[in-house]
């Protein structure tokens, strides 16, 4: 602390104290310097004018003493705002007389063109300015030589931060050179640019500025304030900057922008004002959340026990690496905490690992933690898309683990973007865009992924894949499984198409399950349909649109594909009038069909489904069916049926109807070879359940019914017990004796009837009657 002698009272104050006083009065807040609301400055200036300047004369503090002036001048000139020609001229004269004052300027705001005076201000401050604010629209219309001098002088600046305001729109595209763009191309230190109404139009001036930004090697952040919707064409020009890491806008990132950046500039984080986007892409917070999920703070006792993290505990130090590896894998496997956990809803999506055990293993030692992480990252499970963003960020900091990621699995409730187009909110729209961005980010980082699954196989909440998203997925050369997706989308934009060239990228895909073909299939010029999906074993589209053109185009495209390895196929509503060409070509390969119903539609097909697909042994039906759905797919070779309905009533109605027709000899068995029925949506055998009655009826016909866990109900006894041993009374001559014998027989019949209430009502009663008849003849 420096002190001074007697004299003026302020000499007794320390330099730090004087600095605080002057800084409080002279400092211009950053939000005022960067403000885009020009009316705010107008109001302040008007207020100062009406009071004769008394309300805003901070420079008067510099007249207190030489010391105050020495300390205050750097603060006064740190931020310079020029709003009029008179201000620019005064500032130019001041810098001409006192050049040292220009060396204090760090932030320069020029709201217009001020001719030679403005050019001189730029010349004097160029060496020290770190942030600049420019009204760039003025530079696109100027033809005055003095104003051009200021425009050319901008190239002398080299700021780290630039705020470009386009308050008047671009004009003069043809004749006026792009002065601002040329200047920006020379700003080698620029790391942050804020461009109001930027990246929106297609004029020459704006394209030139965007292209210049793309040449900068230190540009890290692009900020597009207010309600501006940037165009992808303009953003592409700036996105080639090698250091670019963030693009900030306030709403309206289009899905195509998100998809393009994820595929071509995956390191660039897109941030928006929408809560869903903001929650996903806050870089540091997401990383902390992910690390906290896997590696929580070690308890104080553990810290004291393992002060050296590199040293494993004594009980693991002698274990061979192979044994320790097996122990970790066994400990990670999910196990039911109690018997009831085993009977959770069967289609519920859960992680394959036990979260509690994994957290405990991560705390044991560095050796155990690394082994645990190597298994956890192989097949991560995400309860939400934001967790996937955090995981990707974590993997960027652990490149040694990236090659181990082979599968991505997502919970049903967190990733669904397609259910119905009716009543979809803006929040859901934004959520869908966020999901696309997150997945694209992972695709660009995790190149060894072989399987991507969204939800379960019967979920109606699907992840939407645009054509550009499909192109990105096609770059995963090892991708073998894709489940729970739509092929194409249409979110308020012109309907997209799916080309054969796009689908031909999936050269390793073996399974496409629980899919919806959303967009029209179009043949590319140099990619025939027979080159598509040549490795596919399973193609199950469990959802369908009601658009006839898309459906017809799909069946035509499928009929033209070779599909040499296809064994399982699914489509909800199979219309043989359209599907016959496909089944004629591929039907003999199929061993399994997934459908809701098979119908003939328009026309009269000459061949049935059984004739078209003679080798099918397994049928799977959807969730919502009509009773005749089972009969519509009759097939003599089917031995196994999978049912996804939540209640047995449709199946029971079909079964009862068929058994009745069979007794009347009116209908042949639809599945005479049937041996197994598997109910996916039913998991616990409870007494009193309607499923039990159906199971008993089918078991009597030699058909076993299994719940979702593969458990069959132990059938109740259906056959009658042994005939009761009855010792007849000795014959009597009297009428009274005959009455006694009859009473014994009646009593025996009553006992048998009571037993029949438990075992069977029909068969055992007949036996009891016969037994009574035999006894009566013995008595006689």
UniProtKB/TrEMBL annotation:
Residue numbers spanned by region Disordered: 717-780
Superkingdom of source: Eukaryota
Extent of the signal sequence: 1-23
Biased composition (Acidic residues): 750-780
This protein's UniProt keywords: Signal
Protein name per the record: F-box domain-containing protein
